[in-house]
Design goal:
Blueprint (H helix, E strand, L loop, with lengths): L3 E4 L13 H13 L1 E10 L9 E7 L2 E8 L1 H20 L10 H18 L8 E5 L6 H7 L5 E5 L7 H4 L5 H6 L6 E4 L2 H15 L2 E3 L3 E4 L2 E7 L6 H8 L2 H13 L4 E8 L6 H14 L7 E8 L6 H21 L7 E4 L8 H7 L2 E4 L8 H9 L7 E5 L12 E3 L4 H12 L3 H17 L2 H13 L5
Parallel strand pairs: 1-2, 1-5, 2-4, 5-6, 6-7, 7-10, 11-12, 11-14, 12-13, 14-15, 15-16
Antiparallel strand pairs: 3-4, 8-9, 9-10
């Protein structure tokens, strides 16, 4: 059996449950035959020159963890620059927030070349290589340039925008052609596959072959949707742990006379958090019977505070939340609880189970696993209702959620009102169907499906 090599910007010790479902699933696959997990260490070393790396290896059970430190310049250009100030906003449809500094692209290419140089000597002839996410799009092309013939697959965790938005990237054709160095490209949704395919056909004259394959002068690659899931068993075990139960019981006591609405996100402009607050305001204005009866708990964990766009977002959000509480709250009731801290993962199932409505309303998201966690955490006898943005990748799978347009804040308020008053039989029916689909297409199904396709792919 071939050894699996996973490459991602960051990695985690797969033996630690706190690493989360994805790390557990990848660790399980790596541990089956022994494997290698390669990526950036997270460290920035001022003594390293641009384009150079400092490789470190350690073992975690049967898995070898290989990490590379970055120099200050490469961290700024590759990670803060091109990955998070160019690719992230563009792929989330936010051209207005992109910083098209030419030095960023040079640093991005330089780090991917360095990763390839450091990884190539660690590879075996029969390895299967699985590369993850937008930080590492050119990596397979760099490995091929060094003579690597192994099967290489790529999975994009973020959404793919329409062709004209992708075409706004300076030198976009070179970046996108590098996908043809992969044998398999996995995307989150059918919409992503359509956007990706249309770009390749319209912008670089690729031809569509049978079996979702694309052919260009750079080669042939297969494109398919592999919607990522959660580790259902791991999350259910978390829900049964003391911390989750304690959180659930405390919230039930505190909100015994009120219905709790819950939103859990990173503080990111793609998550639609200000729009969610405006929708809640409309709910209180249009449906005053919710006064003293509904409370929105908004948890927005810190994210990239050193990027200006995130500082503006935090300032805007704090103003919106303060205005809601100031205009509607009184001595007995605070309608909105805003928490700008990271909440321990072990408490998340308890938070979700206590909520009557889960608000997952991003402006654009590759998948959004919080939506799936919310469903899994519910009591099947008395489940809460998931209100989900139609622009989350999860909307393709979670058809029984109440789908909303997060830009239409008044319309979203109407749907939240319906969720708060949904009859028990309908809540149970919707929850049962959602849970069955989430359990069937969990993170282990995702991993098996992708690697099964990659194992049979024609290597370069």
């Amino acid at each position: 059996m071939s050894r699996l090599v996973v490459v991602s910007n960051r990695l985690a010790d797969p033996r630690k449950p706190a690493a989360g479902g994805l790390a557990v699933a990848l660790g399980e696959a790596l541990a089956r035959t022994g494997g290698l997990w390669f990526g950036w260490s997270g460290a920035v070393d001022g003594s390293i020159s641009p384009g150079a790396g400092r490789l470190k290896t350690r073992t975690a059970g049967k898995v070898t963890l290989a990490t590379v430190d970055l120099c200050v310049e490469d961290h700024a250009a590759y990670y803060l620059g091109y990955s998070n100030s160019v690719l992230w906003p563009v792929f989330h449809y936010r051209l207005d927030l992109a910083d098209f500094n030419p030095a960023y692209l040079a640093g991005y290419r330089r780090v991917n070349q360095m990763f390839a140089r450091e990884l190539q000597p660690l590879l075996r002839e029969d390895d299967v290589i699985w590369v993850h996410d937008y930080h590492l799009i050119p990596l397979a092309a760099e490995l091929r340039a060094l003579g690597c013939k192994q099967r290489i697959g790529f999975f994009m965790h973020i959404p793919v925008p329409p062709p004209l938005i992708l075409a706004a990237l300076p030198q976009h054709q070179g970046l996108m052609r590098s996908f043809f160095a992969y044998d398999l490209v996995g995307l989150q949704s059918r919409a992503d596959v359509a956007h990706f395919t249309h770009y390749m056909v319209n912008e670089i004259d690729a031809k569509e072959l049978d079996g979702q394959r694309l052919q260009a002068s750079d080669g042939i690659t297969r494109i398919a949707a592999f919607p990522i899931g959660i580790d259902v068993e791991e999350f259910q075990a978390l829900a049964s742990a003391p911390e989750a139960i304690q959180t659930y019981e405390a919230l039930c006591t505190e909100y015994s006379r009120r219905q709790l609405l819950l939103g859990i996100d990173r503080l990111d402009y793609s998550k639609g958090i200000p729009q969610r607050v405006r929708a809640f305001r409309h709910l209180l204005e249009q449906y005053p019977e919710n006064h003293h009866k509904a409370t929105l708990m908004l948890i927005a964990s810190p994210s990239r505070d050193d990027v200006q766009a995130y500082a503006h977002l935090r300032h805007e959000l704090e103003g919106l939340c303060g205005a809601v509480n100031g205009d509607f709250g009184d001595l007995e009731w605070m309608p909105l609880r805003y928490i700008h801290r990271t909440v321990a993962r072990k408490r998340v199932p308890g938070l979700c189970r206590a909520a009557r409505v889960g608000l997952v309303t991003p402006l654009r998201d590759g998948m959004n696993l919080v939506a799936k966690e919310f469903v899994v955490a519910q009591d099947p006898e008395d489940p809460g209702v998931l209100v989900l943005s139609r622009f989350a990748g999860a909307a393709e799978q979670l058809e029984e959620a109440l789908l909303v347009n997060p830009y239409d804040t008044q319309g979203m308020a109407d749907i939240v009102q319906a969720a708060l008053h949904m009859p028990l039989p309908e809540r149970q029916s919707r929850h049962q169907k959602l849970l069955e689909r989430i359990c069937r297409h969990d993170v282990h199904w995702w991993r098996r499906s992708f690697l099964g396709e990659l194992e049979t792919a024609n290597s370069h």
